[in-house]
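Open question from group meeting: does this chain pack into something compact, or does most of it stay loose? Before anyone orders reagents, we agreed to write out a predicted structure and look at it together. Recording both the input and the output here so the notebook holds the full record.
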Amino acid sequence: MESARDLLVSLARRYAFADLGALSHDVVEDASTIEAVCEFGQRLLSLDAEDFAVEARGVPGDLRRRARACTMPQTPREQPRGALESLRPAYALLLEVIAVRWHRRELSSMVAAVHIASEYMPLLAFEPVLGSAGDPARWPAGLSAQGSRFGVIGDRECDHTKAEQSATNRTLRVAGEPSEGWRAYLDRQHSQVAGALATCVAECRNPCAAMDWVEENHRENLALRARVALTFADTPLVRLRHAAPVGHGFGVPSPEEVLEAWDRSRTILSKSEMGRAAAVDDGFPLPGLPSLFSAIATAPVAPSTLLTDTATHLVRLLQL
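Structure tokens returned:
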């Protein structure tokens, strides 16, 4: 029995939450608490952001609060606002997930986490000037002021794609929709709004009044950070997510291919002064990625310890 418990402890320390939860009832007399904590840990590892905040018996309040800071609110008025208030906790968790997936050699899942980071990165750049992480309930009035083409469907002078025009139009009114519409918007369109904002401030060929609300002394720096976010989304590392010959999930990259893609990505990013943060050797499995996130956020973004602390809590439960 003790050797079986030692195996469960090893699984906890490898963040194998799903396996640990499935096996625990064969070893522990009352495994309900362990199973609940494992479910919580697996949600974090899987980046199941809808359910981070679900109450789980046996999960310490501090872990639940930290997880809640990474979740997307499931109704327009839900409080606290989680990742719509600030994306920095979510990006810290993304870094920890990327590192764990790398060490477990789960490279398809790792690249998927990198892809998620690329989709919302423009909002990480906008957060310091917005005062939120792109909360549709708190968009500045200037975004749709007179002379702005933001959210105007069919305007041929606007550089947004049709999908982006639809998403930006929706984001200006979705806070007044029922919860079902709110969740559908977050699932399908919020990341497109992120890219549209970056285009507005950094790459628009026919600027309108959409960005006039940004103070002039902040606009140039915001444009630089948003441009790096757009560049990151088109790097060889992120393109690994789409490299499979038949849809997603085929052709899993090797560690060597991931590192080679990241090396080429760092070279591309380093062509701009802001992007040179990716060249920093900060000890991360993908060296420079936390430094790049921090530069875009204008604040330190280091890997969280949510997964580690959840695993440590499980070890304590198993050793009782």
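Observations to bring back to the group:
Residues 2-89+306-318 form one domain.
The first helix runs from residue 2 to 13.
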